Each structure stands twice: as C-alpha cells, then as structure tokens.
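User: PA0069 family radical SAM protein. Structure?
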Amino acid sequence: MNSGRNPGSSIGPGTNTPRPPVKGRGIATQVVHRFSPQRRDGFSQDEDIWWSAVDEEGLPAPVRTQVTFEQARSALCGNDSPDIFFEQSVNPYRGCEHGCVYCYARPTHSYLNLSPGLDFETRIIAKRNIAEVLREELSSPSHRPSIVNIGSATDCYQPVERELGLTRSVIEVMRDARHPFSLITKSSGVERDLDLLSELAGHRLVAAYVTVTTLDAQLARILEPRAAAPHRRLRTIRALADAGVRVGVSVAPQIPFITEDMEQVLAAARDAGATSAFYTVIRLPWELNGIMREWLEQHYPDRAARVLARIQDLHGVDAAKRLAGVSYDSSYVARMKGSGVWADMLRQRFHKACERLGFHRERSELDLTQYRPALAKGQGVLF
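Assistant: Predicted structure:
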C-alpha cells in the first residue's frame, strides 16, 4: 500500500511554513515527482523545485498555461477495477487547468517527467488525433461495446477545450458509431455540445455527471481555482436536464472538516434537475499526499493535522502506517468510500439524504445494442 506514502515534502527549504499560494492555481510548488533523481525522503533542499518568479509585491507571480500536442497511439483505456462503473475511458488531455488540489490524477504527470504540482495544472498535453484513433478502435471487428467514460483522468471541458474542440470531436465519433458513453465535468463548457448530447440522450446513448464538491464559493475558489463556480455548475445541471440529458451529481470528494455541506449540495442539485447522485472520499496516492498537506498548511493551518488524521481514519490507516506517512488505503475494496466508523457515518448521511430527496444511487442505464462498427468508419451516421 505504498501508494499512500508521501514521496517528498512540499514545505519550503529551511522553513516550517509552506510557500504562499500562486494566484489562480491550486498548488504553489513544483513538487518533486517520485521518478525524479532529485527526490529525497523528508525535506528537499533543491531550490529549483520551487516556483521562484515573484511580482512587484514579492508574491508568487501568475503562471501561464502551456499547451503542447502529442500524437495518441491509442484512445480507449481499459479498466478492470470492480469499484469503477465503466470498463473503458477516453481522455483527450493530460493534466487539467482547473487545478483541483485533491485530484487523484495529479500523480500521472510523473510518468511524463513533469511535476504533479504546478506542472499538472499549467503543462497541458492535448492529444490532437484522439478522434481519428478512437474511430479506428471503434470500427475494429474485435471491439466489444461497454460504457465508455469521457473525462475520468482530466476534465474534458477544461478551458483549452473551447479552442481545440477535442472532446466534441470524440463525441461526434461516439455518435457516428452509436456507442453509449458517459461524461463527467466541473465545467459549464459542456453546454456548448447540448446539440449533440440532447439527440444522443433521446436514444439512451449518453449520461452526464456534474461534480459539485461544495456550495461554498470561497472554498471552491481555493480548492478548485479554475473550475466553474458552484452556482454555475447548478445552472449547467439545469441546462442538461432541460435538454433531456440524464444528469447526475457527483458530491466528490468528501474531505473531512473541509467539505461539510453534502446534504445542501444534494438538495440544490436535485432542484436543478439531477436525478442520480454518488460520492467518493478523498484519496491521497503518491505525491498527492504531500500536495494536500501543503494546501492544508497554506489555507487551514489551524485544522491541518485534524483533517489529515480524519482522512487516515476514513481509510483505516493504523498507527504504524501513519508514522510511515501513509494517508489512505489504496485497495479497491475501500479506496472510494473508505472503511470504519467515520466512513459508515458518511455513508449513512449520503443514503438518508438521497432517500429524502428521491435520488437514484444507480447510474443511468445506457443501450449497448445500438453500436455499429461500420458506422464508426463514416459509412453513415445515426441521425
């Protein structure tokens, strides 16, 4: 269970205090990733891992987003974990400008020799040929249809999508192949594609999920700095519902003593038109462990230790593993919902709220029988 360990500190060299926040970003530092030759256990003394640019007031200067392109060799990514509802996923981008501090996908930037810290939210990789590769894969005689999720490891409607339109091109391929899919987002950008989604929804080929972590706008600004504001996400739920798209709300992740308004979020989402709901608890794999600690020390120093201890409680981390820096249980049995007393209390709150509000806790059933590989090749379209 070493994926819960803290591979490096995010506290500044020679000090016990974290670096000040970078305006508009979730993380203030270039956290050393686990494959870096610079990595050390405990504190790092490598000055070049810190973002050193400052403005005229001596505060960290804004960091511009860089977008680079890659040629994707594959589009569909398989999943065999029983705690995840989809078997395949498509992610048009690597990294995410939304900068959500808690994002479990941050450690994936390490495989690119980039930092899960600032790099993850400022160094975005766009898969320029993702639609063409997906079309080839869906038209293959060996492809077996299952629910495909768009946006499992990056928000498919992050800001760069407005210019590049890669997500829309992926949806167009799914439409042509009559292949069912779901998507999940925190962005109002999904409203751009209501023309496609509303038609597909009428044929039970799409379901959408909008993540609303909290209704507290001030908290959202530091927790998810470049995602849509909570009230805007509720308007997106309403827009999807009015367009006939099956829409659910993800109240995730649940962070002890930070996101405390689960019931209010569920009620607001129901009023906006959501018909289903689910949640997960916060997970802290690999470098995310240190990243979350940095964020807590920056924004909630008075409760940082308390929050981390409760996260460890949620995941049943024993005393020995806590001393080793472990913060969560990475096994598929417990990682999504946690285990133990505190996880049970959270589960009861969620279930009671859903029952009171009339929410379905099952995800929308989509129709797998309409898939036609020949249509994926462009020999016809669905509508």
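The chain has one domain: 2-379. The two ends are 48 Å apart (CA to CA).
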